[in-house]
Amino acid sequence: MKIVHDPTHQQINFLDERFYTADNKTYFPSVTTILDVYPKGQGFHNWLKSFGIQSEEIVKKAAQQGTNVHNAIDRYLNGERLAWSDNEQSNYTLEEWLMILKFEEFWNVTTPKVLANEISLVSEELEMGGTIDLVCAIKNPLGKEELWLIDHKTSNSIHTSHELQLAAYATMWNLLNPKYPIDRTGILHLKAATRGFDSRGEKIQGKGWQLKEFDRHYSESYKVFQHVHAIWKEEHPTYKPKNKIYPDSIQRKEEK
């Protein structure tokens, strides 16, 4: 839920966070909202079924864990000090803290140059919006800097929908930032099964983390995303955010 205070009209707007706007008039769905119509696969549904009535709580807990780690990474990139606990009060679960430490190792290994982090974009032309975790320059083994678009994932596995998400973000970024086109896209998987660094130096990874690329170039993956987007629009022909408006102040009237 996004809260926008409009003092001119003395109101507070509570906007559905799954929609984006550049002018507060026209709204577009987020990339992840569009990808809700993409099949998650039988494995995912079997996994949910195995937990029965607890599945909803497990999904909610996983989402909160992802949010906590994302927020911590954003603070880290902004130069803030992160602490496991303050005054004996834990700020993170052990699993969250270990993933934060994995991100720090990735950062120290690759020494990227940040171009943007946690940046929200909206494209009227593409009819979508989204928040990109990280755009940064990383040197390849030959010493040449390449511009990466990276999304942090704390899930147990990586899916095709993640590939399509990256493709949509990269396409939107290139449209809005033509002077800085994306060279490569990757998922920084903070729950990877990797045992350590790649001895051949071909993959960017460490123990329990990996910057995973997909076989297709993101321009090819975006073609698949366009089909998904078309299905989403077919299923939501009159979409709009669930916007609620409230006054920003009240005062009791004096009795006459």
Written overview of the protein:
The protein is α+β, with helices and mostly antiparallel strands. The protein has a single domain (17-79, 94-240), classed as Lambda Exonuclease, Chain A (Alpha-Beta Complex). The chain has 6 helices and 13 strands. It has helices at 31-34, 42-51, 55-77, 94-110, 160-176, 218-235; strands at residues 2-6, 11-15, 19-21, 27-29, 85-86, 89-90, 113-123, 128-139, 145-153, 184-189, 205-206, 209-212, 244-247. The strands form 4 sheets. The protein has a 6-stranded mixed beta sheet, with helices on both faces. α5 links the parallel β9 (145-153) and β10 (184-189). α3 packs parallel to α4 (94-110) and α5 crosses α6 (218-235). It is globular, with a radius of gyration of 21 Å. The chain starts with a strand and ends in a 9-residue tail after the last strand. The mean pLDDT is 87.
